[in-house]
């Protein structure tokens, strides 16, 4: 992130803020699409970052929308998506499904018999027939850092339930056109070989499940989990050979030539675009320790790691004010009244001073909306999209304790 632009953005919108480089989003989309087999379709998982500027950039690059909530649906509409939106998620309420149907969603990833029945009832009420992909938790073991399939999980139909003789009957529901299978193994899949293996497994699962349930498998969403560093300037993953590997898996499947192959990605497409710009509020000593207190914390970054959901890794803090000589070991904390509000412990970094502006790279995915935004009711930071080094769009998350301009 260019220091001059960062300082200008802080002058315009205050600190902290998230800045998103749309050129990077477009480039990631291009690279990932080129790494997928010919004809494969790519979906953007809004959960990674619903910011409409990012989603619009992806739409213009030919990526489709995958949403899981009313808020993500609204974001998709703001980004200009109107057709081909897929809705997923393990607990879809009547309201979410109704909102989806009223707003033109015609395709659902279905997670259970109850989910199927609920979608069927509401589709009939709405007088429509919707496409359904059965999200399956295959019996095969996954290869992902945060495994969501191939292990016992709350996601999808357990494959054994779909292979049982009564499944076909239970899924003969009006208003549903069962067209395919969706398998998502998990995020941050560590290698090209693992991505290939997972894709093979998704395709094999689709063959087994469609034969057992008795539908023609026209669509396979093989998930993804394409990796990218989080909040650190670690090297980008080497996806060399991905296209050949996925191509080989696809061509070996009996569904090749008849079904549409799809993938979905959040992190890979937008993580690299985002920088969190923050200011040092305090540098204080407590015994042998030094604490660097920032104006950002787990309410804006890594909230899930604050809850112990994800192991905390070291983070990169680049000083955009002054690059000082030397190395200190500090704990980097935020402004919340909770010892959980810690972004890094035992972090080795050059000395910083009060007022320094720091940048955390690679936080375009699972940043603000994956954090504890409501905790302690701090103002939500501006999210600024920029292109060719110039700001082009600014957003504020809308929540009641958001930016109150009356005070
Ligand atoms: C079903 C599903 N699809 C896609 C994603 C996006 O994953 P990633 O951001 O790693 O690409 C997730 C993330 O949890 C998910 O649960």
Structure description:
The protein has 407 residues and is an alpha/beta fold. The protein has helices at 3-13, 22-34, 52-60, 70-78, 94-102, 113-126, 159-163, 167-170, 192-213, 242-252, 267-270, 303-306; strands at residues 17-21, 41-45, 64-67, 86-87, 107-110, 130-137, 146-147, 157-158, 176-182, 186-187, 219-224, 260-265, 274-286, 289-294, 318-319, 328-333, 342-349, 357-360, 382-387, 390-395. The strands form 3 sheets. Strands 1, 13, 14, 15, 16, 17, 18, 19 and 20 form a 9-stranded mixed sheet that branches. Strands 2-3-4-5-6-9-11-12 form an 8-stranded parallel β-barrel, surrounded by 4 helices. α9 (192-213) packs parallel to α10. The model has no long low-confidence stretch (mean pLDDT 93). The site of pyridoxal-5'-phosphate has 16 residues, from β12 and α11. Pyridoxal-5'-phosphate binds next to β12 and α11.
**How many domains is the backbone divided into?**
2
Provide the CATH architecture of the largest domain: Alpha-Beta Barrel
Helix content: 25-40%
CATH superfamily of the largest domain: Alanine racemase
Task: Determine the strand fraction and express it as a percent band.
Answer: 25-35%
Largest sheet: 9 strands, mixed
Secondary structure topology:
Blueprint: H1 3-13, E1 17-21, H2 22-34, E2 41-45, H3 52-60, E3 64-67, H4 70-78, E4 86-87, H5 94-102, E5 107-110, H6 113-126, E6 130-137, E7 146-147, E8 157-158, H7 159-163, H8 167-170, E9 176-182, E10 186-187, H9 192-213, E11 219-224, H10 242-252, E12 260-265, H11 267-270, E13 274-286, E14 289-294, H12 303-306, E15 318-319, E16 328-333, E17 342-349, E18 357-360, E19 382-387, E20 390-395
Parallel strand pairs: 1-19, 2-3, 2-12, 3-4, 4-5, 5-6, 6-8, 6-9, 9-11, 11-12, 14-16
Antiparallel strand pairs: 1-13, 7-10, 13-14, 13-18, 15-18, 16-17, 19-20
Helix pairs in contact: 2-3, 5-6, 9-10
Bound molecules: pyridoxal-5'-phosphate (PLP).
Pyridoxal-5'-phosphate (PLP) is lined by residues 45, 47-48, 88, 148, 184, 187, 224-226, 264-268, 365.
